[in-house]
Amino acid sequence: MAVVIWLFAGGGVAEIRGLVPFFEQHYPPFRFIRMTPVFNKPGPRPGITPHGYGKTGKSLASEIQDRLPHALGSTEGCSAILVIDDLDCHSEMDRHNQLAKAIDSVEGAGAISNFIGFAVPELESWIIADWDNSVARHEDFRARHDRMRYWLSTEGKVRFDAPESFGKYNIDKDSCDVKLSEVIIASTMVCEEDQVCRRYSKGFHTPALLGKIDPEIVKNKCPIFRRMHIFLKQACRSASA
Asked: Least packed by Cβ within 10 Å: which of 22, 60, 92, 176?
């Protein structure tokens, strides 16, 4: 029987489509139930913002405080609570404390093991870390992934050996000065004159490529990801014992 982990994730389409399949692929025997972001039922409609969609930081903390009590009152419990948020060049300590406080404020949540992890600065850093298994093999990019990688290294200032180092905090934007996902999109628009180049889509390509990466490779280049990976691997061993 699968053991349940409740997943509270900030962000949008990529998180909705990609995170649960990624976690369940690599961290059995757990079944991950996404608590946020979730679509309003029966489905998203034009002009309607999905419940929890796009929330991060303080907004995600409020969403946790709102949804966690209902989850605790449900008939199906969980073994652990996992929170994942894009750090977007904010202080890891400040963001961690903000989200931890939200969990601790909910009666009964303290009895459940929890881990607060971050995609730094965005989920796409994990894809960059395992480029050879993700972008380099995807049918939309494999014929030109070398050119994309060169452009990202030189013009985009992306470090493939340390993708979590990308970006600096911009106080006016309250996020990174440049989005990693936007730089990846820009790299796909560098084409030869006779080429028809598929533009990178955060909503389509990010979830698809998350399914191709190897966490054992990612952890060697992303120290913040590695902490989450170790927590989940240890939890897997305990659940299987």
From this structure: 92
